[in-house]
């Protein structure tokens, strides 16, 4: 039996972060992961993270994964892949299946960071090839380079469903619709809005009732649901799709914690059965900890901080940190987590749908929640979204209290300010001059910032927006400007494109439109 001071189970965001922290503190660490490559979900995530600098804001998930792996490698963290932990037994003995054989390890401490599994919903034909989870779709696209299908129905409008839908568009797929049994969009409004302006329709208070086909999906039948989430007869609608993608939440993979006889409890706000934890992440079994989604479903940013926080407590108990050193680290990690856990999307608010206004007192858009976009009238209530000024200036259509502030850091002239509370809505400093550099447009993780110039040419204005699709338009190309619903509103001509390394694969595209459409035009579609 091999002994290690710390055994970490899971090489995802939480597990790798925990291993790195413990190794930095001088501990002997080994990490087990059942997959063929480390990094967990990070390498599927090509979108930019929210938060602030310390949360890896505006950095794409796979890049964060690369950074974590390099840091672990440089420190000499031992990561064992293709290693399935089968159980945790008395005295923190662990059995691991490796190369077809079962090996025994013993840890002075164990951190369980096994993440979460996708939920599925049963419906007629749900076992037909072509019905897949959102995570599977991400794996196919972003790991294996394969389109999951040609025409996709996305079931679920939480952040996973919205983010994966956008990535499906980036992979060249058509998203026929996004449906959700809930009466409102579940994820960030900015994620929904960037989909709506490409023309993707939302069907809220709808569910999927049947996958058509025998050996593969050839269509999907959806129906409206009543207040009890039951399909309403006569409201069925058939969609022409070849893939049904399910994104209806995650469940913590807490089987190992249960196997280790940790006290467990069903906590819906955390996603299911989880181990009861101390404030430091320790279970009822001394020396066994949980971190990341296995402790409660949150974003990867939170998982990484949790991993480091838990590992610092393990290091203190093992004698590698003094109590004062640990307390300093712990308070810092708690402050970082606290920032991410503020606002209407905080874990404590999971399941709430009674918010009617932002922290600043602005009315929350009913159209955004029901259809994924905002009307000009609704946006007029938000100063940063309706800001007007001679010459080029930013317009910020971020209208929910999301923990994010890269726009503030991007503007070197201080045009945009969020403040110390990162869930505050971005504001525009009218005293500062916008240079039109486009860094705020490229850095916005929600793609919610535009540059507008009503004085571009006589009778014409320019609208600058983020673009992450191929093929990239060229200067001089002509097409249609789309509004926030994805409907063509006027002719448009591409007059500018910026794409620099600092913008990290987000092109900043400028189109010329007739002046009267400057406040409606928000996206571009090339002429076919």
Automatic annotation (TrEMBL):
<keyword id="KW-0560">Oxidoreductase</keyword>
<dbReference type="GO" id="GO:0016491">
    <property type="term" value="F:oxidoreductase activity"/>
</dbReference>
<feature type="domain" description="4Fe-4S ferredoxin-type">
    <location>
        <begin position="424"/>
        <end position="454"/>
    </location>
</feature>
<dbReference type="InterPro" id="IPR023753">
    <property type="entry name" value="FAD/NAD-binding_dom"/>
</dbReference>
<dbReference type="InterPro" id="IPR051691">
    <property type="entry name" value="Metab_Enz_Cyan_OpOx_G3PDH"/>
</dbReference>
<dbReference type="Pfam" id="PF07992">
    <property type="entry name" value="Pyr_redox_2"/>
</dbReference>
<protein>
    <submittedName>
        <fullName>Pyridine nucleotide-disulfide oxidoreductase</fullName>
    </submittedName>
</protein>
<dbReference type="InterPro" id="IPR036188">
    <property type="entry name" value="FAD/NAD-bd_sf"/>
</dbReference>
<dbReference type="InterPro" id="IPR017896">
    <property type="entry name" value="4Fe4S_Fe-S-bd"/>
</dbReference>
């Amino acid at each position: 039996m091999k002994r290690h001071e710390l055994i970490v189970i899971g090489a995802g965001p939480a597990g790798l972060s925990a291993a790195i922290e413990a190794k930095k503190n001088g501990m002997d660490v080994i990490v087990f992961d059942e997959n063929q490559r480390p990094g967990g979900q990070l390498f599927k995530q090509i979108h930019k993270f929210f938060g602030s600098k310390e949360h890896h804001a505006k950095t794409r998930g796979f890049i964060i994964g690369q950074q974590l792996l390099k840091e672990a490698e440089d420190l000499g963290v031992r990561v064992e892949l293709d290693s399935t932990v089968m159980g945790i037994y008395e005295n923190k003995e662990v059995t691991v299946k490796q190369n077809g054989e079962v090996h025994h390890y013993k840890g002075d401490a164990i951190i369980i960071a096994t993440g979460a599994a996708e939920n599925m919903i049963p419906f007629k034909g749900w076992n037909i090839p072509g019905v897949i989870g959102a995570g599977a779709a991400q794996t196919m696209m972003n790991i294996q380079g394969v389109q999951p299908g040609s025409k996709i129905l996305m079931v679920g409008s939480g952040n996973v469903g919205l983010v994966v839908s956008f990535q499906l568009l980036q992979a060249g797929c058509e998203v026929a619709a996004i449906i959700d049994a809930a009466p409102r969009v579940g994820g960030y409004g900015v994620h929904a809005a960037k989909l709506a302006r490409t023309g993707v329709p939302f069907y809220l208070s709808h569910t999927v009732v049947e996958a058509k086909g025998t050996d593969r999906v050839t269509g999907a039948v959806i129906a409206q649901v009543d207040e009890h989430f039951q399909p309403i007869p006569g409201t069925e609608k058939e969609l022409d799709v070849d893939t049904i993608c399910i994104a209806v939440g995650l469940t913590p993979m807490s089987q190992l914690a249960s196997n280790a006889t940790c006290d467990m409890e069903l906590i819906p706000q955390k996603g299911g059965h989880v181990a009861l934890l101390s404030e430091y992440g320790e279970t009822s079994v001394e020396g066994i900890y949980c971190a990341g989604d296995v402790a409660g479903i949150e974003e990867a940013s939170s998982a990484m901080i949790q991993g480091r926080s838990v590992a610092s407590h393990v290091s203190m108990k093992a004698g590698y940190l003094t109590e004062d050193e640990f307390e300093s680290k712990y308070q810092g990690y708690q402050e970082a987590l606290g920032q991410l856990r503020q606002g209407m999307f905080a874990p404590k608010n999971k399941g709430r749908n009674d918010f009617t206004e932002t922290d600043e007192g602005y009315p929350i858009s009913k159209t955004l929640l029901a259809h994924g976009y905002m009307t000009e009238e609704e946006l007029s209530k938000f100063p940063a979204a309706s800001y007007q000024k001679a010459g080029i200036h930013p317009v910020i259509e971020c209208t929910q209290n999301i923990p994010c502030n890269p726009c503030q850091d991007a503007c070197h002239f201080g045009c945009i300010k969020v403040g110390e509370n990162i869930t505050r809505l971005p504001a525009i400093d009218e005293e500062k001059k916008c240079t039109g550099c486009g860094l705020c447009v490229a850095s916005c993780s929600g793609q919610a910032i535009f540059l507008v110039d009503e004085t571009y040419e006589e009778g014409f204005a320019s609208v600058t927006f983020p673009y992450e699709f191929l093929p990239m338009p060229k200067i001089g190309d002509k097409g249609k400007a789309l509004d926030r619903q994805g409907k063509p509103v006027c002719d448009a001509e591409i007059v500018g494109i910026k794409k620099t390394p600092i913008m990290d694969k987000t092109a900043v595209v400028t189109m010329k439109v007739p002046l009267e459409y400057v406040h409606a035009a928000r996206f571009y579609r090339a002429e076919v």
